[in-house]
Write a structure and sequence with these properties.
The complex is a heterodimer of chains A (418) and B (96).
Chain A: H1 6-14, E1 35-38, H2 42-55, E2 60-63, E3 79-80, H3 87-101, H4 103-107, E4 118-122, H5 125-140, E5 146-148, H6 150-156, E6 172-176, E7 180-181, H7 184-197, E8 201-203, E9 208-214, E10 217-223, E11 226-229, E12 233-235, H8 241-248, E13 255-264, E14 274-276, E15 280-283, E16 289-299, H9 307-320, E17 329-339, E18 346-349, E19 355-359, H10 369-382, H11 396-399, H12 411-416
Parallel strand pairs in A: 1-2, 1-12, 2-8, 4-14, 12-19
Antiparallel strand pairs in A: 3-7, 4-6, 5-6, 9-10, 10-11, 13-16, 13-17, 14-15, 15-16, 18-19
Chain B: E1 3-6, E2 10-13, E3 18-22, H1 36-44, E4 52-58, E5 66-72, E6 78-83
Antiparallel strand pairs in B: 1-2, 3-4, 4-5, 5-6
The chains are: A alpha/beta (418), B mainly beta (96).
The complex binds flavin-adenine dinucleotide and zinc ion (ZN).
Chain lengths: 418, 96
């Protein structure tokens, strides 16, 4: 792997940046792999990287039907935080946040993790109480989080309107200072480059169209580039998980929804924290406001959002920050997200022997990529769920041991709006 | 923007409606005798197809009636609208 350093950048600057090597190879698929990962988003690529690095399993293929990071990983608003509620969630997401803190070094690739703090605002006393509860739970779990007064909120966000004509009031809030944003593409590319250097074959334009099974065990995958033999398959296809589950003969508690994001024209620095609430908004390094809200309200594989949600996001934004009313919005897009009934992921065994699940990331799985990859690789390598993801098993929808993160994932808030 | 042809009120914008999820999910006859597997499946497992989906909608900001329809989850094209208490018409979809 061509190491990035100040020297290498200086050297390439002198030659006009014309001679940077390819970040990864473009191999043709082999006839057999020890492990096949389906889906070249952040979770699939990170899993392949940790399989090779932590477990020495390098005969791995990542099969991606489109281009790397072209799914939700390259479409999300890139917010990273670990301020969840249940201990199983906070342990998991905080590991992910810690891995993010060292990821640029680990991958020798700048993922531009900017820990500018993630702020939530309470617009009712009930919400404020819930935040208090969450902050206490977080502190108890050893994760830093602190309540904010209205004055502190206004100090952090001078343009915030405390009470709006719509009747919205501000009661306080809380902040996780270690939270922030990272460059989403860089996370996918950094993992891809590092995995490729360890011998992983990353194969784009290769869609998995079916599976070969024998006695309830997987023995291979059918792809648009031919059949591949393997006894271990990791599915990391986000909103497309139900489709592949149907091909394998089981159903999932997943509903695929369109989640939209949009960016404004760039302006000078106006917002230097990430605001997370009925909508979430942050300012990118280029100065654009990056805005997202809840999902559209019916299932969709369209990767295209509808107008009512755009209007809703805009009116929420302007209610909070009237000063943004003159901004023009430049682009708007959507991803197909894999929502679950309890807003927690599904990881671990599937009903088919040798097939492992990594899905249900809904609207919140970007922050989970490093820990998702690390624990999923460990799960596949050892044929049993990693202790940190045991509770996220598909089995919980039979046992009833749901992990309700509807509040912390933001899903509750956003549904309540519609 | 989807437009939905409410059986009572005619063609209206989607924002007047509420989506009710997959249609034709049957509550097990005797919950007391049903095992966890079947009950979990009833509560949580969904078809979630890419393509034709039979689903429930309510015209909440209109006549407030529930009805069923078949919509393509990629193009959002609606091919059939039928009463809430009717079986799905045959429409080439295979999610049984
Ligand atoms: C608008 C938006 C905003 C978001 N904001 C945030 C946020 O701020 N913070 C956060 O933590 N999360 C956020 N998320 C969620 C986050 O983006 C996802 O949960 C995360 O990226 C999921 O990663 P993944 O690798 O599982 O899926 P993806 O990145 O979607 O990768 C799955 C890949 O599988 C491929 N695939 C599908 N079917 C097949 C097949 N049959 N064969 C081969 N390949 C296939 C797809 O092409 C895709 O590239 C947001 C999502 C969206 C859409
Ligand atoms: Zn009506």
């Amino acid at each position: 792997m061509h190491r990035h350093s100040i020297l290498s950048i200086a050297k390439h600057a002198l030659t006009g940046h014309r001679h940077w090597p390819q970040f990864w190879r473009t191999p043709a698929p082999q006839s057999h792999y020890d492990v096949v990962i389906v889906g070249g988003g952040g979770h699939g690529l990170a899993t392949a990287y940790y399989l090779a690095k932590e477990h020495g399993i390098c005969n791995v293929a990542v099969l991606e039907k489109g281009w790397l990071g072209g799914g939700n990983t390259g479409r999300n608003t890139a917010i990273i935080r670990s301020n969840y509620l249940n201990p199983v969630s906070t342990r998991f997401y905080d590991l992910s946040l810690k891995l993010y803190e060292g990821l640029s070094q680990e991958l020798n690739y700048n993922i531009m993790f900017s820990q500018r703090g993630v702020v939530n605002i309470a617009h009712s006393r009930a919400q404020l109480r819930m935040m208090n509860y969450r902050v206490n739970a977080l502190q108890h779990a050893g994760i830093e989080a602190e309540m904010l007064s209205i004055e502190e909120l206004k100090f952090l966000m001078p343009l915030l309107r405390e009470n709006s004509p719509s009747g919205r009031q501000t009661f306080g809030g809380f902040i996780q200072r270690r939270g922030g944003t990272a460059r989403h593409d860089a996370v996918a590319w950094g993992y891809a480059r590092a995995a490729d250097a360890l011998g992983v074959d990353i194969i784009q334009n290769c869609e998995v169209t079916g599976f070969n099974q024998s006695n309830g065990e997987v023995v291979g995958v059918q792809t648009s580039q031919g059949e591949i033999k393997t006894s271990r398959v990791g599915l990391a296809v986000a909103g497309h998980s139900s489709e592949l589950a149907t091909k394998l003969g089981f159903r999932l508690p997943i509903t695929s929804m369109a989640l939209q994001a949009m960016v404004s024209e760039p302006v000078k620095p106006v917002l230097d924290v990430v605001l997370d609430g009925t909508i979430y908004v942050s300012q990118s390094d280029r100065g654009e406001l990056v805005l997202g809200g809840g999902t559209d309200v019916y299932n969709s594989y369209a990767q295209r959002g509808n107008l009512p949600r755009v209007e809703n996001n805009m009116s929420e934004l302007l209610d909070l920050f009237p000063a943004f009313s003159r901004l023009k919005f430049m682009r708007q897009w959507a991803g197909t997200v894999d929502t679950t009934p309890d807003s927690s992921p599904i990881m671990g065994h599937s009903p088919v022997e040798g097939v492992y699940l990594n899905c249900g990331w809904g609207t919140y799985g970007f922050k989970a990529i490093p820990a998702g990859g690390l624990t999923f690789a460990d799960t596949i390598a050892n044929g049993r769920p990693h202790p940190l993801i045991d509770a996220f098993s598909l089995q919980r929808f039979t046992s009833g041991a749901l992990i309700d993160e509807g509040d912390s994932s933001g899903m509750d808030d956003k549904e309540a709006l519609l | 923007m989807i437009q939905i042809d409410c059986p009572l009120c005619g063609l209206r914008d989607e924002r007047e409606f509420t989506w009710g999820g997959e249609a034709h999910i049957c509550r097990p006859e005797n919950p007391d005798t049903v095992g966890d597997e079947e009950w979990g499946s009833y509560l949580f497992m969904r078809q979630n197809p890419r393509g034709n989906h039979r689903e429930r909608w309510c015209h909440s900001y209109g006549c407030n009636q529930w009805f069923n329809l078949i919509r393509d989850t990629v193009s959002h094209k609606i091919t059939s609208i039928y009463p809430i208490d009717q079986l799905a018409p045959e429409s080439g979809d295979d999610n049984e």
